[in-house]
Amino acid sequence: MLPAAPLVALLLGASPTSWGLRLPSLRGCAAPPPRPNATEPYKLRLPALRRRPHAPVPALYSSAGATEAPTGEEVRDLDPEQLIIPEAILSREDEPGVTPRELKDQTGEAIEYFSSERVPSALVAGATLGILFAYPLVKGEAPFAAVSKRLYMLLATTSLCNTLLAVFAASIAIVRLLGHEHEPMAKDPLVMMLRETPLLFLAVRVHYLTGLLSFVGALSVRMFTDYMPASPTFAKGLCCLTGSTLAFMLSLYNSQLIHFFSLGHMWVQYARCVAARLSNPALSMGRPAGALAFGSAGLLLASFCFFGASFWSHYNQ
């Protein structure tokens, strides 16, 4: 530290050598390079990030409806599953009769949709669990009863599995959207969900409706099996009534779809999204599917084989 007197002298403008002070020499130190423009502050330059070479799709830009392709620095990384949905679905404002809308954050509406889908799916899953064990299998029973019970249990289990998957996918979608790793700007919530979370959106849609239809089908099989021995005519009437309900539900659903042609078309697009997720090793949202996903597909195929063998053995008795 400097003594008090020299410090006061320095503050008053005196020379430091007059008080016997030795300051370190600055000879040999390189001066900092001059700036091109003294009035312009320094800017931090970061290296450009490398992006995966995905084909640009006009409807999938960050503006979610831009008609012109952005520059290379603005192009987003798109996963293969995000390129499954046709461009015509995401740019439907070009169709006649569609009112132009402005871009806005659709995250809130998307979260509300997934939250609303969880409630009916959970209700159907609970109702299915209550009727699942109503028909215990008995060894040596008649072929008609054996096949009917197996069909009933297969439809009930299918309904339970699909509704549970719908609840699970909706919960994952809500957490994913709350992470704010997506592009929220879009002209309607459906476009944003199909662009940002196509796999989860289609999972909720197809699994919920498939579970509901399977639940009604299981009830139809049970009514036919219970009432057929005592009153065949009445049992056939009940099956026709429930069959009419199933057909009208599916027809009403297919006629009101906005972005797809039918439930079968949604299943095809969903299968393509699942295949794209399984085959993609690097994703911008989420993580690649691991060994559990391939194990799930293998177990599903094995269940089909076992079901077919069981039905075939009792049908030929």
Primary descriptors:
56% helix, two-stranded antiparallel ribbon, mainly alpha, 317 residues, 1% strand
What does this entry look like structurally?
It is a single chain. The chain is mainly α. The chain has nine helices and two strands; from the N terminus they run ααβααβααααα. The chain has a two-stranded antiparallel ribbon. The radius of gyration is 33 Å and the shape is elongated. About 12% of the residues have low confidence.
Task: Tell me the total number of β-strands.
Answer: 2
Shape: elongated
The H-and-E topology, N to C, reads as HHEHHEHHHHH
Through-space gap between termini: 106 Å
Poorly predicted parts: 35-73
Mean pLDDT: 75
Our Rg estimate from Cα atoms comes to: 33 Å
Q: What order do the strands of the largest sheet run in, or round the barrel if closed?
A: 1-2
Helix content: 55-70%
- Share in β-strands: under 5%
- Count, helices: 9
Major sheet attributes: 2 strands, antiparallel
Q: Which structural class do the helices and strands define?
A: mainly alpha
What is the element layout, followed by pairings?
Blueprint: H1 4-12, H2 87-90, E1 104-105, H3 107-131, H4 143-178, E2 185-186, H5 189-196, H6 198-227, H7 232-255, H8 263-279, H9 291-315
How do you describe this structure in short?
The protein has 317 residues and is an all-alpha fold. The chain has helices at 4-12, 87-90, 107-131, 143-178, 189-196, 198-227, 232-255, 263-279, 291-315; strands at 104-105, 185-186.
